[in-house]
Design a protein that fits this description.
By secondary structure, the chain is an alpha/beta fold. The protein is built from 12 helices and 12 strands.
Length: 307
């Protein structure tokens, strides 16, 4: 089967070194097998995401030598333009009785962000009758959740190995539509990867725990799931992960310090593909890319890079 990978950045700020690490591995994995790449702009949150960041990240990827075959400047590849697809899938789930309105607080919803591993209990709103929900809706616009079954899902991550999660006890019913009308990440990413024909997803290991619920959504919607590779995160010397909000080694800084070949060499060493950080192009790396050399655990960034 032809390999089709993807870049799926959120344009909420300038990309940082950790983003580049994941994107380089995604690109190498697909290109080393003669595959293609699609660039999807994940701008579901219209408050935080800005078109200017999207255009900048495209230019940054091109500067590094990471190209794509589909998407990018195509409006159809921006999630903000794909709401009809999410609505159709939502309606299919609703027709099967798998969704319900949720009136929980914003704080509780924030605790269910994809990168947070603490588990929230199943939502009490699942027990509301239709009449009770209609009464609550007069005072507050609800979000919507899906009802998960008592089901244990095990899958093989091609870097991290086997991973198991009990949807009922480890996850609980999860949001798929926010109260402001925005579609949730878990639904959108499943619908988009399936619609775009993505066969291989390479992303940070902070999203490993999200994968079982996404696999369940693939099954519930009758869609074919891709294979998954969850790569290590890059950590600052104090142990925190690099983040856009901290402007840690963002592309504005990196492009002032390094050439594309120098930066790719640094990333290649972190990814176990080279013994040294000697300058190299992405195209040169693709010739002998090997997943078995990629570390599984998170990688501390050398202090010299943060100076």
């Amino acid at each position: 089967m032809p390999v089709k990978g993807r870049f799926a950045p959120s344009p909420s700020g300038r990309m940082h070194l950790g983003n580049l690490f994941s994107f380089l591995l995604a690109w190498l994995s697909a290109r080393s097998r003669g595959g293609s790449m699609v660039l999807r702009i994940e701008d579901l949150d219209l408050v935080r995401c800005q078109p200017a960041y999207a255009w900048q990240l495209m230019e940054d990827l091109e500067w590094l030598g990471l190209d794509w075959d589909e998407g990018g400047d195509s409006a159809a590849s921006w999630q903000s333009n794909r709401g009809n697809l999410y609505a159709s899938s939502f309606d299919r789930l609703t027709a099967r009785g798998l969704t319900y309105p949720c009136f929980c607080s914003r704080i509780q919803r924030l605790n269910e962000a994809p990168h947070i591993h603490e588990v929230s209990p199943s939502c009490p709103c699942a027990l509301l009758t239709a009449e009770e929900a209609a009464e609550k809706a007069k005072e507050k616009v609800p979000s919507y959740r899906v009802r998960v079954p008592h089901k244990v899902i095990t899958f093989t991550d091609w870097l991290q190995g086997n991973y198991t999660q009990d949807l009922w006890t480890d996850c609980g019913d999860f949001p798929i539509k926010r109260s402001d009308g925005a579609w949730a990440y878990q639904l959108a990413v499943v619908v988009d990867d399936a619609a775009m024909g993505v066969t291989q997803v390479v992303r940070g290991r902070d999203l490993l725990s999200s994968t079982p619920r996404q696999l369940w959504l693939y099954e519930a919607l009758g869609l074919t799931a891709p294979e998954f590779y969850h790569v290590p995160l890059l950590l600052a010397p104090d142990g925190r992960r690099l983040a856009k909000r901290d402007a840690d080694l963002d592309m504005g800084v990196l492009r002032q310090r390094y050439t594309p070949q120098e930066l790719t060499g640094i990333l290649a060493k972190m990814a176990g593909q080279r013994e040294t950080a000697a300058p190299v192009t992405a195209q040169e790396l693709a010739g002998d890319f090997n997943w078995s050399k990629v570390p599984r655990e998170d990688i501390p960034v050398e202090p010299a890079l943060l100076a």
